[in-house]
Amino acid sequence: MKKIIAFAGSNSSTSINHKLVSYVVNSIKDHEINLIKLVDYPLPIFSEDLEKEEGYPKQLSRLLDEIKAHDALIISVNEHNGGPSAFFKNVLDWLSRIEYKFLEGKKVLLLSTSTGKRGALSSLQYTQGVLPRYNAEIVTSMPFPSFSSNFSLETNTVTNDELSAQLHSEVNSFLDALK
Description:
Layout: E1 3-8, H1 16-27, E2 32-35, H2 48-54, H3 58-68, E3 72-77, H4 86-98, E4 107-113, H5 121-130, E5 137-144, H6 147-150, E6 151-152, E7 157-158, H7 161-177
Parallel strand pairs: 1-2, 1-3, 3-4, 4-5
Antiparallel strand pairs: 6-7
C-alpha cells in the first residue's frame, strides 16, 4: 500500500478541479490517500525580499513535510487566462525555494479541468513541463474537458462514458506504476 497525497491547484471554494481530484481519490482502493486543500497552507506572494527578511513561512514547512511523507501525488490544475493560476504557481515557487528537488522520487498523476473544451490543457502542459524540474516523475496526465457537461455535481460522477473510461485507464496506469 502506497501513501498518496492529492490536491487541486486552485484556491476557489467551488473548485471543479477539487471536485475532479476528489472523484478520483474516491475511486482508489488499497492505498492510503490524503486529500488536502492548498488553501489550508496559506502563503504570501513570493518575493526574494520577503524570503530574505522573514525566511520561509511555517505553512510552507508543513506543506513540504506533507508532500515528503507520501510516495506519490495526484494533482488537478486549474487555468486562468491560458496558464496556471497565480495561486498554484506561488505554491510551486515557495516549495522550490525551500527545497528545489522537493518532488524527488515522487510519482505524479496530473489532471486538469475547466468548463471549456480544452479542459485547462495549457495549464496542464505548463505543469507537465515544470514539475520534472523538481524531480517529479509524471506517470500520466489527462485534461478533462467541458466539466459542466461531463460531470454531475449531484451524483459526483463522470457522465460521459468515453471520458470515464479514459480517466479510469489513466488512474490505473498511475496505480500500476506505484507497484
